[in-house]
Specification:
Oligomer: homodimer
Distance between the termini of chain A: 29 Å
Structural class of chain A: alpha+beta
Number of strands of chain A: 14
Helix content of chain A: 25-40%
Radius of gyration of chain A: 19 Å
Low-confidence stretches of chain A: none
Chain lengths: 293, 293
């Protein structure tokens, strides 16, 4: 049985903009959205995915902060952090028996022509990623189409916002599969490594961990940030950098990191093997699982 | 009262892939989608909007053909044209008293983890665009971030597919509004005019109508195609071309054309006035309204 818990956020219009009333639990298998919701017709909303370990929400506050930043980039009403925190906490409590679960929170522009958003939080059991953590991922490098400075030049392209418009991210994973790979890694039109469709890149060279700079129009990784904090305590140097394919080819190890899959080591890039650091992968993932906000 | 008619498509799994059973009318104001539908969580689906004049569907077949092309670009199951035609026809019949209406058809990848798509057709009255047709639109030129050859080099970026992932298209319209304009016109990173967020560009120079080439990663316009067919009968030359800002600045007239708004003349581009051709605008829109498939 795959447990699934849904909380619907309730909003009311007010002269100062929509007010969040709170949440109510609802049936996740029953229809909850109309076909005129702008989530469904325009991918017009933002989301976050927060992992839950035995009922503990991991890195909730950084996720809520990024949720607010994404909402601002889309000119959505600012999410009420207290109301979203409550909904996540209620869901986490109901999934406390699961070793690993996650909650996805979604804020949409609501029904077209209306003046209140739609919001929900859906908690589910995490898939078993032990094989990926052990064997690693083969990734295909795919052009993201955008130049590396897009976030500065063209904010309306929403680079760096976590939006519901993820059709390209999913198409990239299918293209990677066509190339015999497990996942994609995006590269800017000018050859700078960016991010995976739902993950950040971390590479290790000796005792230094590097990740692409967030001003490259990529998502600021909450999991990546937690890994760096842990690694600094362990004596690693860390840096945000401009990384290119050569840096990856020469890396001692590399990972795609994300909230639910945690740190998935890369074993190949475009068919060329790169080393899997099994010991460090295990230590990173143990540290991620042990997080408490 | 704004009439609204919803038809839900029914699908069944089969060994050869999902089979379309037909449609049923449903309450457009009632929830119909679960929060796990990939339309709502990933903008993972495709759509078309078909205008209806006094119950007549306009350019239905080209729209159904483009719907199928978009679905193929997203590796979605091929839409059954008969079933979608029936749903559109049923909706058009119920909106026959309206002078102008439209039906939006949507095919999504369905509920995450499932094996059948979700589909619906929503018919509504068209807004009144007479002021826009008369006064014209001020548009802001906005960088689309992508180079002009993206469709050939990087098909996973889905340039030219009409997907539900339209957050950027909507953000561009908000950015245009911030600049005091009514709509946006996208330009490639290398300065080639592309399309509006939900429309195609047509410009007139003397007796020649030009539109950006469809190999530029833009949507092949059904309304643009109908306008060109009509214009050729009227003795205009027509061409698909590489157009740049200078071509627009020197144009005798220009329009953003789309299924529901029809031909909306431009009156300014980034604040610089361009001529509105009121007579030709009226003739084009009369021809569009008179279309029968």
């Amino acid at each position: 049985m795959s447990a699934s818990v849904l909380a619907i956020l309730d909003f009311a219009a007010s002269p100062e903009g929509p007010r969040t009333l709170g949440h109510r639990l609802a049936d996740p298998d029953a229809p909850q959205l109309t076909v005129a919701d702008l989530a469904a017709t325009r991918g017009d909303g933002v989301f976050e995915t927060i992992s839950i370990g035995r009922g503990r929400l991991q890195a909730l506050e950084p996720h809520l902060a990024r949720f607010a930043r994404s909402a601002a980039m889309l000119d959505l009403p600012a999410p009420d952090p207290g109301a979203w925190r409550d909904a996540c906490t209620a869901i986490a409590a109901r999934l406390a028996e699961l070793p690993e679960a996650f909650v996805k929170i979604v804020l949409t522009r609501g029904i077209e022509g209306g003046d209140i958003p739609t919001g929900w939080a859906l908690g589910q059991a995490s898939p078993d990623f032990s094989a990926v953590h052990r064997d690693g991922l083969a990734v295909a490098l795919l052009d993201r189409g955008l130049p590396h400075d897009v976030a500065a030049t063209s904010p309306w392209l929403l680079a760096g916002a976590k939006t519901l418009s993820y059709a390209v991210n999913r198409a990239a994973v299918r293209e990677a599969a066509r190339r015999g790979a497990d996942d994609a890694l995006f590269v800017s039109t000018d050859g700078v490594l960016l991010e995976g469709p739902v993950s950040n890149l971390v590479i290790r060279r000796g005792r230094r961990l590097s990740t692409p700079r967030v001003d490259l129009g990529i998502l600021a990784g909450t999991t990546q940030a937690d890994i760096f904090r842990w690694a600094e305590r362990e004596g690693y140097e860390t840096e945000q950098a401009i990384l290119r394919q050569a840096d990856l080819a020469e890396a001692d190890a590399a990972w795609l990191v994300s909230s639910v899959r945690h740190a998935a080591p890369l074993r190949a890039v475009d068919g060329a093997a790169i080393p899997v650091d099994a010991e460090l992968t295990a230590r990173i993932n143990a540290a991620l699982r042990a997080r408490v906000d």
